[in-house]
Amino acid sequence: MSAKARGLGRGLDALLPKVDKGIQQVPVAKVEASPLQPRHRFDEAAIAELADSVRERGVLQPILVRPSHDGYEVVAGERRLRAARLAGLETVPAVVREMSDQEALEVAIVENLQREDLNDVEQARAYKQLLDFGLSQEQVANAVGKSRSAVANTLRLLTLDDEVLKALEDGTITAGHARAILAQPEGDRAWAFQEIVSKGLSVRQAEQLKRPAARDKKGPKASPYRGLEEDLSRFAGTRVRITGGKRGKIELHFHGEDELQRLLDLLGYRA
Q1: pTM (2 d.p.)
Q2: What is the pLDDT of residues 192-223, one digit of tens each?
Q3: Does the 17-98 domain belong in CATH 3.40.30.10?
């Protein structure tokens, strides 16, 4: 296991309940996928290759399951389970442990992060699931071995439109593009997304996007600080407004305490 993987949160050993029944051979037909599985996309070609290996050598690493109402629910090792099923195995080695939904979700997230199997949207949705269990962003960060600000920034992806999230999952755009879109004023995000996709912009080019000001002679005079506001919005990842002349104010917009804390961290403020 890499140093990066070892540094993930409390680690799988710390997350797993200590009581189990050892390694057992459980019927493949009795093991079902978990609705808590944070990973929603599987490389079928890679699973087919793994199935070839399983036919020849068997499943070398046990999967982790928990008892369900009529069998077992896989917590970690769904790729191995799918490969075993594809290879025609009747049983698969498994560690059976009693686990709560929250414990099962934490283990599934950490295992996938260690293998770098989750895309950015899957990570964000997985973190949201942990928040829904009542954990704070700080507790989520500790569980998965990330900084609180990294968790907050990943969660912000879920504020993007479904079209943008789908493009991110499909690989049409990268997480860097998505963050550049988030830095745009909310009303300009759809425009920025279309510009990035239609023109094939790099992340650096996306970060420099500025929507041309609408020409409306009857409209209010454009702010002399528009360019600076856009630069600061990209830097802060939220809407920034500057008002006044020689004396004025800078407003940073936020939604909720977690967003406020992220901005305070960005500014280097410590209570």
Answers
A1: 0.59
A2: 999 999 999 999 999 898 887 655 545 555 56
A3: no
